[in-house]
Write a structure and sequence with these properties.
400 residues, alpha+beta, 9-stranded mixed sheet, 6 helices, 36% strand
Length: 400
């Protein structure tokens, strides 16, 4: 990997040139991929035809065998012979053909001239080590896949026969020099009932919001009851909630340009220097009662000037070479670490190259302070056991 042979001559190249060459678009590669896909499709069609022929041949053989067996045993039953009109399911006909395996004969031991696929492992390890020494984050594909599977297989929370979900999503756009251009929050409360005995209920809520949200009830929900007592119930008391369906009963919306309502402010200061660009970026949690999880702040970087050199960093940073983004990750932000900063330098670029900055996070607390107090039977006000969950996440959050 230290040298590349081109036109019969050897040239000394570095890792940046190798990365540039491997990322270049190749027409020959596209043609090769198209030809390979065509060949794979033809081979698959041929395999299916062969499998169908083998299945048809097996059916004819089994049918012939059954006819012969019935003919030889027919005389024993006489005129009262038993006739079975039920179809006979041949399991062997539905099974795909199994390839036969023949153990290769032993050959005399000696040096082999065949290509050894594992002979370059040492060079690969050396190359990976060199990438890591330059600051690249190399992740093993097998470990990454196993972690993704384990994360996706994590069971959901234990849901009761009455389950309530508060879901909110945010869209925010702010200026690099300060000022909130637009912020929207869309929220919805969903109800799921899995047993008929608890299908006629009412949900008591508490609205402590001071941000000025607009609340709207579902057309089938008693709006007068909600405005008077903050209880969610159907207009028709004899009509139950649908079973095993997640229905939205309440939704709300907030649109504002008030900077005081920003949950997380981002301040990015890129400045040009003699050696390139120095970037200082900091965050601050503006809502002290919020708890943000899996926070990722993505800063675009100019191309053709190498990777950023990270200095001081609260949390972790990783440079994505494909997206050309420096990703600043913080697993958790609350009142205990309400502010933090990141510094890095680039060997070139312009201050405009580091915008827009994109932010993503999630939270288990709602942004609009709407809470669920209890769930009661509609007929006798008896309390019922329920489960609830909150999902507040970012749909789009950027500093332009």
């Amino acid at each position: 990997f230290d040298e590349i042979v081109a036109l019969g001559y050897r040239e000394n190249v570095n890792l940046a040139q190798i990365r540039t060459f491997t990322e270049m678009d190749s027409h020959e590669e596209k043609v090769f991929q198209a030809v390979r896909q065509t060949q794979e499709k033809e081979a698959l069609d041929h395999m299916r035809r062969k499998a169908k022929e083998i299945q048809q041949r097996n059916r004819e053989m089994n049918k012939g065998g059954r006819m012969a067996g019935m003919g030889s045993a027919g005389g024993g039953f006489g005129s009262g012979s038993f006739r079975n009109d039920s179809p006979i399911i041949d399991s062997s006909a539905n099974e795909p053909p199994k390839p036969s395996y023949t153990k290769p004969s032993a050959k005399a031991a000696g040096p082999s001239k065949a290509l050894k696929l594992g002979s370059k492992k040492k060079d690969v390890d050396t190359f990976v080590g060199q990438l890591q020494s330059e600051g690249e984050k190399v992740v093993d594909a097998g470990k990454q896949g196993s972690s993704a599977v384990s994360k996706s297989s994590t069971p959901a929370i234990n849901q009761e026969s009455i389950h309530l979900l508060i879901e909110e999503k945010m869209v925010l756009s702010a200026g690099r020099d300060g000022g909130l251009q637009n912020m929207e929050v869309h929220g919805i409360m969903k109800l799921r009932v899995s047993e008929d005995r608890v299908s006629r209920i009412k949900v008591s809520t508490l609205n402590n919001d001071t941000k000025g949200i607009q609340i709207q009830t579902h057309p089938n929900v008693d709006k007068k009851l909600y405005l008077a007592t903050s209880e969610v119930a159907l207009k028709n008391a004899d009509k139950p909630f649908p079973l095993n369906q997640e229905v939205g009963v309440l939704k709300w919306r907030l649109q504002t340009q008030d900077e005081a309502l920003i949950p997380l402010s981002i301040n990015c200061w890129p400045s040009e220097s003699s050696s390139g660009c120095e970037v200082n970026i900091e965050y601050e949690l503006e809502q002290a009662d919020m708890e943000l999880e899996d926070v990722v702040i993505s800063i675009p970087c100019p191309s053709g000037v190498g990777s950023p050199v990270v200095g001081d960093c609260d949390g972790e940073s990783h440079y994505d070479t494909h997206k050309r983004q420096l990703q600043w990750s913080l697993p958790f932000i609350d009142a205990t670490n309400k502010s933090g900063s990141l510094e890095f330098t680039m060997h070139g670029g312009h201050p405009d190259d580091f915008f827009p900055v994109q932010v993503s996070f999630s939270s288990r607390k709602p942004y609009c302070n709407i809470q669920i107090l209890e769930v009661k039977q509609l007929s006798d006000d008896q309390p019922e056991k329920y489960s609830s969950d909150v999902a507040f996440y970012v749909e789009k959050y950027e500093i332009v």
